[in-house]
Amino acid sequence: MKAIVVTDQAAGTAGMKLVERPEPQAAINDVVVQVHASGFTSGELTWPSTWTDRLDRDRSPTIPGQELAGIVTALGYGTTGLSVGQRVFGLSDSYRSGTLAEYVAVEARNLAPLPGDVEFSVGAAVAMPGLTAWQGLFVHGRLQAGQSVLVHGAAGAVGSMVTQLAREAGAYVIGTGRAADRQKAIDFGAQEFVDLENDDLEGAGGVHLVFDVIGGEIGKRSAGLVRTGGTLVTIAGPTEARPADGLAIDFVLVSDRAQLGEIVQRVRDGRLRTNIGNIAPLDEAVAAFNPTRRISGKTIIRVRP
């Protein structure tokens, strides 16, 4: 099969290439998926799990990519809940070979059925951003109707999902980002927008929940935007600052079939739109992984036409 591999952590994307690799076999509780569309996270080449296994043993060359949509072609021993020929979407395990390939072996529990009226590219684009938004808002942030949410990067792949899900839940949403992102954030449902380079961020304070995807100095300042007893959730790493009498939660998403089902149902109903900024074929995945221009939204690799 064709696959993108990375061979050298120090080389970064310069060590990435398209090669032929053996097709994967399904282990216990696995399925093998014929990948039709795949997604990746730009920071994957910095993750320890890209280069070593859970026992810290080198596993390069490795196949990056975590998001996928495709068709089940084989079941491992003991696998239940999915069937051969079924359309699925979801996430792979970051410690195993990834999804920038024609086939991938994935634990069945990490996947959910993909309805026939949802395109593969949409399934791949909604899996990780959708789960991140869902878990940050409802599992960790415990968002309730009538509360206010400040969403950093509201025009991005994750931020646009956060904005839409928060609005649907009855929250008042303030988005942030660059000046050029204002209209896009509003189109996704933000009721106010703060230009992080020119506007007064502190003037938007007093919210129940901040959802941070940026970290750094913005992450530190974000704790002061939360009202007493509120919550700061972040996917940008641990933060030193904490809201007054509140919570600061740094989380990593986990795959959840039921939540994926909730998310894709909202896509089908028109309540949730994906934010795809670029679609490229597998043989252009290296360039897509290292773009020469800023892409606003998710990059999807179309593995099959």
Defining traits:
alpha/beta, 7-stranded mixed β-sheet, 6-stranded parallel β-sheet, 305 residues, globular, 23% helix
Describe the fold and architecture.
23% of the residues lie in helices and 28% in strands. The protein is an alpha/beta fold and 305 residues long. The strands form three sheets. Strands 3, 4, 5, 6, 7, 14 and 15 form a seven-stranded mixed β-sheet that branches. Helix 2 crosses helix 3 and helix 2 crosses helix 6. It starts with a strand and ends with a strand. The protein is built from seven helices and 15 strands. The mean pLDDT is 93.
What's the structural blueprint in terms of helices and strands?
Elements: E1 2-6, E2 16-20, E3 30-39, H1 48-51, E4 67-75, E5 87-91, E6 103-107, E7 111-113, H2 120-140, E8 148-151, H3 157-168, E9 172-177, H4 182-187, E10 192-195, E11 207-212, H5 216-223, E12 226-234, E13 247-250, H6 257-269, E14 276-281, H7 285-289, E15 298-302
Based on DSSP secondary structure assignment, what is the total number of beta strands?
15
Strand content: 25-35%
In N-to-C order, the SSE pattern is EEEHEEEEHEHEHEEHEEHEHE
- The end-to-end distance, rounded to whole angstroms, is 15 Å
Approximate helicity band: 10-25%
| Outline type | globular
The class by helix and strand makeup works out as alpha/beta
Helix run count? 7
Q: Determine Rg (CA atoms, Å).
A: 19 Å
Q: Major sheet, described briefly?
A: 7 strands, mixed
Mean pLDDT: 93
Poorly predicted sequence stretches spanning 5 or more consecutive residues: none
